[in-house]
């Protein structure tokens, strides 16, 4: 295995962890914020903020040489990166399971205005946030 | 499990990155092995031992709890 491949994997893992964490926070904020009543101006500001975030990420992907092809690889070649990736998936599955159980248990407490889209963004936010934080925490020096 | 990789590495005047490059692993692998947060496979343990021209038993020692 080439050392360059491992450095690419290391770089991808680091960037992906920060990307997942930030995207998770954005999704959670979006799902919670959209539940409360806001006028059209506030929702426009929210939309522009999310668009700004997406543009910043797109610029980063293009300029910083984010190795997108790594998303299509099943596993990391490096043993340690593969281990923490597997652990992060376990943490993510666990968090998602807890969320589902929480929703199941508090079914009646969830207001009817909460749409499926809101719930989907909330679940996505939880998944991304837990994966990102787990990866960052496990790969600390 | 304790290990003496950091001592061997420092004695050889190597950085974590240089050792990682020498045995084809990521720097974080070396970092987390040294802090005993990651237990490497036999292959990596043998590669490290081979690099320092020593045995795996000299690099890794079992704790009472192991």
Automatic annotation (TrEMBL), chain B:
Keywords of this entry: DNA-binding
SMART domains: HTH_XRE
MF-aspect GO terms: DNA binding
Keyword Aminoacyl-tRNA synthetase in record: no
Record-annotated HTH cro/C1-type domain positions: 5-59
Tree of life domain: Bacteria
InterPro entries, per database record: Cro/C1-type_HTH, Lambda_DNA-bd_dom_sf
CDD domains per the UniProt record, alphabetical: HTH_XRE (cd00093)
Name the UniProt record assigns to this protein: Transcriptional regulator
Source taxonomy: Bacteria, Pseudomonadati, Pseudomonadota, Gammaproteobacteria, Alteromonadales
């Amino acid at each position: 295995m080439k050392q360059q491949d491992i450095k690419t994997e290391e770089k991808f893992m680091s960037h992906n962890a920060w990307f997942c964490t930030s995207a998770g926070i954005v999704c959670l904020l979006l799902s919670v914020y959209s539940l409360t009543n806001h006028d059209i101006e506030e929702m426009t500001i929210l939309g522009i903020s999310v668009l700004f975030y997406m543009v910043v990420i797109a610029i980063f992907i293009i300029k910083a040489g984010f190795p997108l092809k790594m998303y299509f690889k099943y596993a990391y070649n490096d043993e340690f990166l593969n281990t923490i990736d597997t652990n992060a998936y376990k943490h993510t599955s666990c968090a998602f399971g807890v969320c589902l159980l929480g929703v199941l248990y508090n079914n009646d407490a969830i207001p009817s205005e909460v749409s499926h889209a809101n719930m989907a963004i909330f679940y996505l936010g939880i998944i991304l946030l837990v994966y990102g934080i787990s990866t960052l925490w496990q790969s600390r020096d | 499990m304790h290990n003496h990789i950091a001592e061997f590495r420092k004695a050889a005047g190597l950085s974590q990155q240089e050792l990682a490059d020498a045995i084809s692993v990521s720097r974080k692998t070396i970092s987390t092995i040294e802090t005993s947060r990651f237990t490497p496979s036999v292959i990596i343990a043998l590669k490290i031992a081979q690099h320092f021209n020593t045995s795996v038993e000299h690099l890794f020692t079992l704790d009472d709890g192991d």
